[in-house]
Design brief:
By secondary structure, the protein is of the alpha/beta class. The chain has helices at residues 20-32, 43-52, 69-78, 96-105, 117-153, 161-172, 213-225, 283-298, and strands at 13-16, 37-40, 57-61, 87-91, 109-112, 178-185, 193-199, 203-206, 228-231, 250-258, 261-270. α2 runs parallel beside α3 (69-78), α3 (69-78) runs parallel beside α4 (96-105) and α5 packs parallel to α8 (283-298).
Length: 301
Amino acid sequence: MADTEQRDGKMPVLVVDDDDAVRLLYARALERAGFTTMQASDGATALSLLETTRVGLMLIDNKMPGMTGMEVITELRANHRTRTLPVVLVTGTDDVPARIRGLEAGANDYVVKTTHLDEIVARVRAQVRAHTAWADALGQELEERARVVTALGSVAPGDSPEETAAALVEQLSRLPMMSFISLLHMPEAGSLAPLAGWAATKGTWTGGAPLASEEAAYLIERGESGPWMTDAADSRFVHSRRYSADKLGRISMAPLRLRDRMLGLLMVGTLPGASPLGATGDLLAATIDYAAVATALLAPS
């Protein structure tokens, strides 16, 4: 069945070729398959169109007067608005180096001039579907992260920093693929101590002995430089009194900062085999968001 949903609010395919007959042939084949199309006869016109119009994919010939297809792709990838736009490059049958350079420049796929129209349509459809799936997943992930941040923000401050930290940790422990969560504070310069933590094997706890001085110094130095993420196996120090290092995949850490002062550190560990992106997509970005909420709730105390 044709992808008629492409006609219902979906973005068009931009076909770019200086040969009028070829450009029209590609456009008609795509339209018969259910896509809407736009056309441009050269690279400069295509770039100008993209300044004011959103498209779902660009199908572009490489050999054109003025700007080549690869030069257009280079321009696209240098612009934050078009950096992720799917591009299928059309090359000559014997132009293998151009295909390689095109992929290196940022093309998502390529076809040759002699490729059957049905295959060109199939490749375009595959790229559009993949990009749509990626965008949908990203949208879902941002919604989930916003939900978690909202839940954290609704935590009522407890009678002590430890109680507040425990409530925050409880919220974060509900995320999938979590193995370990720790909220550390700096009771004095150069030291780190747990406010609260959670491990999949032990549940939630509050308080605890300060970290060893060498470990605390390392984490504070890293935290002063900003957030970071590492494989648990590569971590120089693993605060392992409450969990087993072999139960961890990756550790994401973000400092709790109030203006120019570091107050503590949020550590989040995933289960082994979890996606590097973590439980809610970009784990490091999510950890930064969660640390910001924790700072707002814990800083007054």
